[in-house]
Amino acid sequence: MEPQDPTPLARRFERLVESTRFVQLMAQTFSTLDLTVRDDIADTLGALTSSYFDCRARLVLLVDDDTGALRVAASDGFADAGALLSAPGQALWTWLMHEKVATQLGPTELRSRWPEAPAALCEGMACVAIDVRDRSVGLLAVAGKRSSEPFDEEGLTFLSCASGLAAMALANANAHELELAQRRLAERRAEEAAAETRAKQAALAELDDRLALVEAQRRQIVALSTPFLQIGADILVLPLVGTITAHRCEHLLDKLLAEIARRHVGFVILDVTGIEQVDTNTAHHLVRVGQAASLVGAQCILTGIRASVAQTLVGLGADMASLLTMRTLGHGLAECHRRLQQR
């Protein structure tokens, strides 16, 4: 007895089981490959869907994020893929994406909507929009079934499932791209911050170097501005130029006391010929120097006081009584020699 043909209900059940298994296979494939590039997702989606239907042509369109226009992300079985984006073609794809649901178009309806449609589509096609968060981001289409059978309800259901898998894969790719963009932004900002920090550190280091150089030059200038000249064994001459500040006076005192102790001199001549302006502070500093010298056993003589400086000192009421004053350095030296001869 020959076996009877399966009933339409039994065939439909078999197709549902087959489509369910294939959807599971597609899900496992996407999970295993972990695709994050949109065109790779489109190519895998089109190949698996075409394999299920055993079609000669397949097409995946995606919306370009920058321009908002449709572009061919993956295709096979078309002589001229560029013709798929002609004005009538784009109008058809846009209408199908707005329809949202899986749709099959027979040869007659396809020709009515797109008279110059590529030959690979003219045997009839099935397509479905790809939606991510309620926004159509692309379209999946297959055409030219080798069995020549029309696309049935079970096939359209399978297309809807395939579209859902594609939506999840594309959403994952979007999240991956966003994560990469945020990571690149964070890395760029970190690099900029590091570069700014390095620049600031370099500027601070340069400033420190300049300040150190200025300080070294200042010390050198101070040292050069207080040269000690020894005349014979007992006379130390200190020519003063510029301004006698409190800081310079402290330096002068320290160095003078050290030189008197080191050289064992009995006379110190402070020559102020190079000091053009004298005020109360300057006079006070000079008195301090003289008193300090006398405390360590050296007689201090102040020379080089010009008439204008003398008038200023008198006008300021400066107390110079503790200092022996002479008009010129020569007079000061002569006085020192005279006193040395009297010893």
Automatic annotation (TrEMBL):
Keywords: Coiled coil, Phosphoprotein. The keyword Phosphoprotein applies. InterPro entries: Bact_StressResp_Reg (IPR051932), GAF (IPR003018), GAF-like_dom_sf (IPR029016), STAS_dom (IPR002645), STAS_dom_sf (IPR036513). The keyword Coiled coil applies. Transmembrane segments: none annotated. This is RsbT co-antagonist protein RsbRA. Residues 225-336 form the STAS domain. It comes from Enhygromyxa salina. Residues 178-210 form a coiled coil.
